[in-house]
Amino acid sequence: MEKTVSFKNNEINLAGHLYLPDDIDENKKHPAIVIGHPVGGVKEQVAGSYALKLSEHGFITLTFDASYQGESGGKPRYLEDPASRVEDVRCAVDYLSNHPLVDENRIGGLGICGSGGYVVNAAQTEHRIKAVAGLSSVDIGGLFRDGFEGITTLDERQIMLEEVGKQRTKEANGEPIQLIPIVPDSADELTENTPVLYREAYEYYRTPRAQHPNSPNRMVFTSIDKIMAYSSYDQVDTISPRPLLLIAGSAADSLYFSEEAYKKAKEPKELFTIQGATHIDLYDKPEFVDPAVEKLLEFFGENL
Predict the structure, then answer these.
(1) pLDDT digits (tens, 9 = 90+) for 137-190
(2) pLDDT tens, 73-119?
(3) Would you state the torsion angle of the CA atoms of residues 69, 62, 137, 227, taken in this order, to the nearest 10 degrees?
(4) Which of 157, 124, 158 has the alpha carbon at shortest distance from 143?
(5) Domains in the chain, please, with CATH?
(6) Would you call 24 exposed, middle or buried from its count of C-beta atoms within 10 A (0-12, 13-18, 19+)?
(7) What tens digit of pLDDT does each residue of 246-284 get?
(8) What is the DSSP letter of 177?
(9) Which terminal Cβ of the chain has fewer Cβ within 10 Å, N or C?
(10) In 46-101, where do the E strands start and end?
């Protein structure tokens, strides 16, 4: 059962979907899971798919559009601000903590792709999240600072930040906000050097496979200084003794982000790899999604 809901991050209205099990007992309180969507995504895509699947097995689930994105409020549109994204997660926990059907002591968090960094980051200091999981996790700060597996040089990073500064000056002088694509807009932009994640992200986000009008593949260019200043996993060890689960495909070029988080974390922790799966395979391919859901059900079932 899907319900449209809303809640606030300060003055920004966040648009969400709350999923309730069809046979829910309204005389009891139940475990619940906050689910964060990927960078550039919206609640109707992979986050909503996992929210529905987990609700079919007894969990109340909440997914929502991030601040500045989708049906949520906030200007400028398509700003990607890690601080706001992490606070969105906290505000989602606020909402669930006050829901009459939710047991506030049994709230978990699941983040997908960039939210596999944001939700895990929130859990480092948000102790109302009793168990946290990341799926195809990415530390967006590390990705923008270093590129895939460190291919971006310090000089290249500095040049990009110089350009961000120039653009901020222009916008402060009244010029239009600059938007940039997050993944390739068309198949013509794909080359043999395009990382698999971006190639498959094009196929997922920019074709009928999962394209959505509220996910236009745009980000405010000056988001980059905020992103580069952010790191998802600096305090991941402080989640302990609450449990951490990281799920990733064995063939994902983003796997090293989950490995980094796992290495830094303390017990109880688990890195669960799904053989043969790429990053995007875990979004919507049943042969890979099904074992991921089974693992999530086991994890949240034991810990919530």
Answers:
(1) 999 999 999 988 788 899 999 999 999 999 999 999 999 999 999 999 999 999
(2) 999 999 999 999 999 999 999 999 999 999 999 999 999 999 999 99
(3) 30
(4) 157
(5) 2-142+231-303 (3.40.50.1820)
(6) middle
(7) 999 999 999 999 999 999 999 999 999 999 999 999 999
(8) P
(9) N
(10) 60-64
Find out whether 219 and 81 touch, Cβ atoms under 8 Å: no
Do the bridges between strand 244-249 and strand 129-135 make them parallel or antiparallel, or are there none, so unpaired? Answer: parallel
Neighbours of 105 (CB within 10 A): 11
What's the longest Cα–Cα distance across the chain?
60
Structure token digits, residue 298: 């086991």
HEC-encoded secondary structure of 212-277: CCCCCCEEECCHHHHHHCCCCCCCHHHHCCCCEEEEEECCCCCHHHHHHHHHHCCCCEEEEEECCC
pLDDT single digits (tens) 35-86? 999 999 999 999 999 999 999 999 999 999 999 999 999 999 999 999 999 9
pLDDT at residue 149 in the model = 78
Q: What's residue 151's pLDDT?
A: 85
Tokens of 210: 């999962």
Specify the DSSP class assigned to residue 152: S
Tokens of 183: 């993944």
Task: Say which residues have a Cβ less than 8 Å from residue 105's Cβ, sequence separation at least 6.
Answer: 130
